[in-house]
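Issue 218. Parser rejects a valid record. Input:
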Amino acid sequence: MDSDKIVKNLRALWRTDRIIAEIRLRHLLLGLGLRAFAALIAAFGLLMLELAAYFALVQIWSAILAAAILGIVNFAIAGTLLLIAGRSPSGRELELANEIHGSALEALQIEARALQSQFAGMVHHPLNSVLPSLLVPLITIIVRSLRKSRTKAAPATSAAADPN
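Output the parser choked on:
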């Protein structure tokens, strides 16, 4: 298990989440702007059109029928604008960000499985994980102690051989 891979995948996951959030926020703001524009058109443009159309239709039909026709036309225009504003975001940016997000999650899951198997192996056989890290220092200590005992034994034998 490599901690660099985990950090790299976490960074990629964080960045793609941020990109996805920015894309969605951009889409929401655009939709909100179009909805506000639709409301502005519904308020100002329709007021003027209705006034002009009302005066024209009153001469042909009754006042009630003229007002009803203008109301239906207003709702149709506002509904069309709301449908345009409600379109889903289509873009390669969002697809790419979702693909990177998925691959980063997949890599993190692989690293987590490796960590889990390593931990499970350590729990079942604790000496297998501890032994390699203790083996080298233990061998070094044994070699040093053997060297010290040989150097102490050599002067003692030479002193015992020299009786003067």
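Fixed in the parser; the record now loads. The CA atoms of residues 43 and 115 lie 62 Å apart.
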